[in-house]
Amino acid sequence: MLTDYRIRQRDHLLQIVRALTQQLDLESVLTRILRAATEMLAGRAGLIALRDQVDGDDKKGIATFSIHAQHGVSPEFLEHFETVLKNTTSSAVLVDPARYIIAELEQRLHMLARSGPFNLEGTIGLPLEARGDLVGLLLVLRASASPSSQNEMKILQAFADHAAVAVTNARLYEQVSQEKRQLDALLEGSADGIMILDSGHLILRWNKALAQLSGVTPASALGSTHDETINWSSTPDPNLADAEARGWPFESASPLYVEGNLLQSTGEELAVGITYAPIFDRNKRLVNIIANVRDITRFREAEQLKSTFISVISHELKTPVSLIKGYAGTLLREDATWTKDTINESITVIEEEADRLANLIDNLLEASRLQAGGIELNISTFNLENLTKQLSRKFQTQTTEHEITVYFPKNFPLIEGDQERLLQALSNLLSNAIKYSPNGGPIKISGRTTRREIIVSVSDLGIGLPIGELDRIFNRFHRAKTAETSHTPGAGLGLYLTRAVIEAHHGRIWVDSDPGHGSTFHFSIPIKT
Ligand code: ADP
User: Fold this and answer.
1) CA angle 77–47–86, rounded 5-degree value
2) What topology is assigned to 303-373 in CATH?
3) What confidence tens digit (pLDDT) does each residue in 399-454 have?
4) CA of residue 456 relative to chain centroid, distance
5) How far apart (Å, rounded) are the C-alpha atoms in residues 166 and 426?
6) How far does Cα 69 stand from its chain's mean position?
7) Does 432 sit in the ligand 1 pocket, CB within 6 Å?
8) Whose CA is nearest to atom 16 of ligand 1?
9) What is the pLDDT of residue 117?
10) What is the DSSP letter of 231?
11) How far apart are CA 422 and CA 426, in angstroms?
């Protein structure tokens, strides 16, 4: 038969275990433990103080405590006791915190309890130890000074052990919650799309960036499978399913990289690279796959640009070089004599082709300078109409099939800008108008003003531009298909540079076209007020 005392002790411990499993907050579990311990040991009051947590290396050197639960203690006593707790750090702490701190504290507390108004004769204290670490202490204060029996100490130890478990649980829980918050912040703050799959490819996480990339909301992605949600426009090779069929990730645990075009919810395609990283449990069973989804459009564009650059440049360099070499070689033949006219014609071709080469090299240098850091302008005030007229006269001497006319209204203002650069921009537009109207025809350059800007337009009745090309022709090395099929030479740099010049003047450049019947290029420059 259990004695009444034992029954009460058992009931208390049962309640405490229940409180622990119900995951009540730490303070209320500790208060419950303290109340039970005080009652069982016929104490007047009790305290549980926990060692303050410190980060890193300081852990061993500093030992300060804060009260986390108290029972029956007067506020005055608490205040005194708090001071005692904050001043426990001593060099002895470094050696064996549990022994020294408790002994030191107990002694000071004893003195405090006996002093003045408190009139408490006995204190029983026990350290709270979790996995060998001192996490706090439990103290019961009594009115009599009679020494504590072995049995009492045992009881107190049982309560102290439970309190230590509660503290450890609470701290682990806090640590896990903190890590979860960090993980959530990492997932949601990431610029890359991230999804977490279970071993059966069910989607467990789908972050904001991935929702943006794919157009699929987390609500509709969660709970569906990888293959239901990731829609490739055409199945990439390798892909997740095939790689698994071949033994990934068990054969090789290194991440799997898949690249392809994702079909977005809008029906558009997006080039992405997905890195799948497996996570195993202790028994080497696959538990999760973490997939990082990255938009690789820019990377693809850069690759594309590189190959366009090589093909355009090699073609554009080859043509003039082989012409120059051909004509020079012919002129140098010793077995033939050439008329003066033939010699002149040949040298003219050589000169023109050398000019073309020099022009191409200039444009290339200019384009790379532009990429490195924009354009520096040399600003002056000048008459754009005069400049345009001079330019048109120069170009008119080079063509008989085109008729170049210039029209500027009377009130056209002087403009502020970089004369050299604007001349270069106009030259590009005019030479394109001639180049892309192989059957000749009129070319008109006109100026007009609005309240805020001047607008210059250059129009021709040439091959025109397909509607889909109207924006792209201003990109580096971009040439419309129509230019290629009409076998017009060019490197796709002129309009890129022209746009840069106009934008450096805070202006805009755009084109209208009637495909097959001509184009009109316009640029604007703000008027300084
Ligand atoms: P390039 O003429 O050396 O190819 P540009 O940058 O000057 O390079 O022009 C880019 C592309 O824009 C050309 O390849 C051509 O397809 C198109 N383009 C430019 N001007 C005209 C025009 N006046 N008419 C039709 N297409 C044009």
Assistant:
1) 65
2) Helix Hairpins (1.10.287)
3) 999 999 999 999 899 999 999 999 999 999 999 999 999 999 999 999 999 999 99
4) 42
5) 81
6) 46
7) yes
8) 480
9) 62
10) -
11) 6
Region(s) of the chain under CATH 3.30.450.20: 192-295
The residue among 361, 365, 406, 364 whose CA lies nearest residue 386 is 406
Q: Tens of pLDDT along 354-387? A: 998 998 888 888 888 887 777 888 999 999 999 9
- In this structure, what DSSP letter does residue 494 have? H
The verdict on the CB of residue 48 being under 6 Å from ligand 1 is no
Cα within 13 Å of Cα(39), Cβ side: 14
For ligand 1, say whether the CB of 26 is within 6 Å of any of its atoms: no
Residue nearest to atom 13 of ligand 1 (CA): 479
Rounded to the nearest angstrom, the gap between the alpha carbon of residue 148 and the centroid of all alpha carbons in its chain is: 64
Q: Are strands 256-263 and 269-280 parallel, antiparallel or unpaired?
A: antiparallel
Q: Which CATH number fits domain 192-295: 3.90.180.10, 3.30.450.20, 2.40.128.710, 3.40.50.1820?
A: 3.30.450.20
Cβ within 8 Å of residue 465, ≥6 positions away:
473, 480, 482, 511, 513, 515, 519
Question: 457-477 burial string, b = 16+ CB within 10 Å, else e?
Answer: bbbbbbbbbeeebeeebbebb
What CATH number matches the domain at 2-177, 3.30.450.40, 3.40.920.10, 3.90.960.10, 3.30.750.24?
3.30.450.40
Domain with CATH 3.30.565.10 in the chain: 380-526
Domain 380-526, CATH among 3.40.50.1110, 3.40.50.12370, 3.30.565.10, 3.30.9.30 = 3.30.565.10
Token representation of residue 13? 């411990």
| CB distance 405 to 445 below 8 Å | yes
- Give the residue range(s) of CATH 3.30.450.40 domains in the chain: 2-177
Residue 441 gets the label, from left (phi > 0), alpha (psi -120 to 50) or beta, of: left
Name the residue of 370, 431, 495, 517 to mutate for ligand 1: max ligand atoms within 8 A of Cβ. Answer: 495
Nearest to 374 by CA among 499, 495, 525: 499
Q: Which of ligand 1's atoms lies nearest the C-alpha of 491?
A: 3
Is ligand 1 within 6 A of the CB of residue 500?
no
